[in-house]
Automatic annotation (TrEMBL):
It comes from the Archaea. Keywords: ATP-binding, Molybdenum, Nucleotide-binding, Transport. This is Molybdate/tungstate import ATP-binding protein WtpC. It catalyses: tungstate(in) + ATP + H2O = tungstate(out) + ADP + phosphate + H(+).
Length: 255
């Protein structure tokens, strides 16, 4: 056996399974707007995977297809090996963290976090226990009964994250979640999100247009341009070896 094929065999046996497999994925809005052109992507179990690209490059559309809010025009999405193109969002093992403004402002933090569990018919006691675990994880103990409108931006972002995590998805999807926070708070939340990911041990797919966020947080980064993935790699690989002119230019741009 050649060295090369031994390496391949070794890799396929030891590398963690891909929790998400995307093949030739495409999304066209209104018959003419090509939001996602032709994307192939594999995301490994447990990784902090970032989709980085300029505004309009198709990042949100890609996330929305993974979570099932948008239907692909063509291509395949597999979660844990199963084709999910026609599976409803609530039957997928993914959960999307919405921007904090998607919380119910008059309801308390607890009511917001427990809402999804209530819809799923989880009994009171288990619901409270699961929410309590989330308040602990998110450093929100003491804020449970506050109405959302009385919480700070950072606290709301934590509640939004808790609300998405409490349903115990395998994959947590985060779309520009630090974008609304001021710089200091955004940096604090970067560290917090990394800690939370380690504690819950789940796959995170983090979407951002910020190089700084992507390069400081990610195990691997996919760089998107105009509906396509230009490069996938570890931060230092991309930094040292940009695969295209677009990537090289994008890295030169101010954050
Ligand atoms: P990003 O998140 O990277 O900014 P989007 O996925 O939001 O990119 O958008 C990609 C392209 O698709 C843009 O040209 C955008 O205007 C278009 N688009 C996004 N959502 C819709 C929609 N619901 N209907 C029509 N066009 C859309
Ligand atoms: Mg977007």
């Amino acid at each position: 056996m050649s060295t090369e094929s031994q390496t391949e065999l070794h890799d396929s046996q030891t590398s963690p399974a891909n929790v998400i497999e995307i093949r030739s994925l495409r999304k066209v809005y209104d018959d003419v707007i090509v939001a996602v052109d032709d994307v192939d992507l594999g995301v490994r179990e447990g990784e902090f995977f970032t989709i980085l690209g300029p505004s309009g490059s198709g990042k949100s559309t890609l996330l929305q297809m993974i979570t099932g809010i948008e239907t692909p025009t063509a291509g395949e999405i597999r979660l844990d090996g199963a084709l999910v193109n026609d599976v409803k969002p609530y039957n997928r093992n993914t959960s999307l963290v919405f921007q904090e403004y998607a919380l119910f402002p008059h309801m308390s933090a607890r009511e917001n976090v427990e809402y999804g569990l209530m819809l799923r018919g989880i009994p009171d006691r288990e619901r409270h226990e699961r929410a309590d675990a989330m308040f602990e994880l998110m450093n929100l103990v003491g804020k449970e009964d506050r109405p959302i409108q009385d919480l700070s931006g950072g606290e709301r972002q934590r509640v939004a994250t808790a609300r998405s995590l409490v349903v115990e998805p395998d994959v947590l999807l985060l779309d520009e979640v630090l974008g609304a926070l001021d710089e200091k708070l955004a940096r604090e939340m970067q560290v917090e999100l990394k800690r939370i990911q380690e504690e819950v041990d789940k796959t995170f797919i983090f979407v951002t247009h910020s190089q700084e966020e992507a390069f400081s947080m990610s195990d691997r980064i996919a760089i998107m341009n105009d509906g396509n993935v230009e490069q996938v790699g570890e931060p230092f690989e991309i930094y040292q070896n940009p695969a295209s002119e677009f990537v090289a230019d994008f890295l030169q741009m101010p954050n």
